[in-house]
Fold:
Amino acid sequence: MANKEDDERERNVAVNRRAFHDYFIDEKYECGIVLTGTEVKSLRAGRCNLRDGFARIDENEAWLENVHISPYEQGNVMNHEPIRPRKLLLHRKQIATLIGKVRQKGYTLVPLRVYFVRNHAKVELGLARGKREYDKREAIAERDAKREIARVMRRG
Structure:
């Protein structure tokens, strides 16, 4: 019963669909994010862009870079900067494993989505490998084939 309630309380703010097109996602990690008050209000309004975002690890701390959270419209002079490094909250063991995996050739950390779980802003990070051009074409062809099969099945 508790799992069902948790799913209902989870609300997406932004999803990085481009990441699923450009990368193979091998693993996913849920982490918290350190935000200011106006950033939280802007996220609740759904004003976030993850398209060019990435995560980096410096000295046992994870940072979210290049994610645009628009300034809060009713904010005052103390409004936040739209693109700034934001600290990610991960366990020390998770950071240690991510350091080892990111050092491997071709791996990077990409934000997949930003969402709220019980009033806490969370980021889903994906450990990603870059796709080649032929991989992307293959994924598009596969998606089109599934769509065509579904269309034929509906017709009878």
Summary: The chain has five helices and nine strands. Strands lie at 11-15, 23-33, 48-49, 54-58, 61-65, 68-69, 86-89, 107-117, 120-130. The first strand starts at residue 11 and ends at 15.
